[in-house]
Amino acid sequence: MKNKTVFFCVLYFSALTTGMGQMKIVPILGSICNDLNVSMTHASMLMSIYYVSGVILALPGGSLLAKIGPKRLLLLLMACVASGNCVGAFVHSFSYELLMISRFVEGIAFGMIIMVGIVFLSEWFKDGNHGLFIASYTTFPATSSVIAMNTVIPVSAYLGADSPWWIIFTFAIISIVLIDTFIRDPEPPEQQPGIENNINETLNKPSIREAFKNPGLWLLAICQCCGSIVCFAFITLYPDLFTRFYGADLTTANFLAGMSGLFSIFFCILTGIIIDKTKHPNLIVLSSFILMAVVCFFTTLLNTNTYIIHTALIALSSGLILAGNFANVPLIAKSPSQIGYSAAVLNMLYFIGTVVAAPVTSNIIEQSGWKAASVFLIIISIIGITIAVFMSIGRRRRSGPSAQTFFL
C-alpha cells in the first residue's frame, strides 16, 4: 500500500497541475477582457476551449492509451501542459487568438488525464477501496479551483501578470520527472493456455465499438454531461453572479467561488466511501440531481447569509454526480480491458458539457439576465433527474451478472 500511496500522490499532483492550468484565468477574466478588449462571452471561451480538446480527443485518446500505455500518455499530457503554459505566458496580454491556441494545447492534458487516472487506479486498487481512491482522484478540479481562486490575484500582483503561467509550467516539468521516476504501467493480465482462454482474450480485446454497445455507459455519460453543465457553469460564473447580480466585491466573489471547490473536495471523497459501502450509486445520482435542481431554483433568491449555502449545496450535488459517475466506469465496463474506452466515452460527454456550460450560460445572462440562466440550469438538472430515474428502472428490470451493464 505504501507504493500505491506514492503512485497516487504523483498521479494526483499531475492532475492537480492540469486543473490549476484550467482555472488560473477565472479570477482574472475581467483583466483579460480589458487587456484583449473582448466581451465576457469571448473571455469565457478561453475556459471552453480548454475542454474542446477533451471532446475532440476523448475517443482517439482511448486508442492512444491502448497503443502507447498509460505512463507514456501521461508524460505526453504533462508535456502539453508545459508547452501550452510556456506559450501562454508570452501572449496572454496581447493576442486573444494565440492565447486560445495555447489554452487548447493545455486542454489536451485535461481532456485525457481523468481517463488515464481511472485506468491506473482501477489496477492499483482493484483489491479494495477502488471507489474511494477514484472519487478522491476526481477532487483535483475542485482542489485546483480552491487554489486558483485564492492565489492567482495576489500572486499576479506580487510576481507579475505572467506568473500563473510560469508556475504551472514549472509544476508540469516537476510532474514529468516524478512520473518518469515513480510510475510504471499496469502489468498485463497473465495469459492462460487453452482454446477457451484464447477465445475470451479475443472477445475482451479493447474496442471502442464494444464500449459503444453498452447502454449503461451511454446513460452514465449523458448524466455526466448534464452534471458537468451545471457544475462548470457555476464554477466559471460564480464571480459574475456575486459581483454583477448581488453587488459583492471581486475578492469576496472569488473567495465564495473558491469555497465551492473546497466543499467539493470533501463531498467527492464522501462519494467514494458511500459507493464502497452501499453499492447503489444510481440512488446517489438521482437524489443529487434533485438537490441540484432545487438549488438552481434559488440562485437569484439569495442574500449575504445564504451565498455560502448555495456554493456548498452545488458542490455537494455536482460532486456526488461527477465523482459517482467516474467511480462507476470500471463497474459498468463489460470487461477490465474495456475500462479505458469506457472512460473515454464518459470523458467525451463530460467535456461536451464543460464546453457548452460557460458560453451558453453567459450568453443567456447577457441577453436575459441571471434569472433566465437559472431556469436553463434547472431544465438541465431535470433532464438529469429523468435519465437517472430511467437508469434506476433499467437496473430493477435486470437481474444477475448482466445487471452491471447499468449500475451496481
Please describe what this structure looks like.
- There is one protein chain.
- The protein is mainly alpha-helical.
- The chain has a single domain (2-184, 206-405), classed as MFS general substrate transporter like domains (Growth Hormone, Chain: A), CATH 1.20.1250.
- Helices cover 81% and strands 0% of the residues.
- It has 17 helices and no strands.
- The chain has helices at residues 2-23, 29-36, 40-68, 70-91, 96-124, 130-137, 140-159, 163-182, 195-203, 208-212, 215-245, 250-278, 281-297, 307-327, 329-332, 339-368, 370-397.
- Helix 3 (40-68) packs antiparallel against helix 4, helix 4 (70-91) packs antiparallel against helix 5 and helix 5 runs antiparallel to helix 6 (130-137).
- The protein is globular and about 55 Å long.
- It starts with a helix and ends in an 11-residue tail after the last helix.
- The model is unreliable at 191-203 and 398-408 (pLDDT under 50).
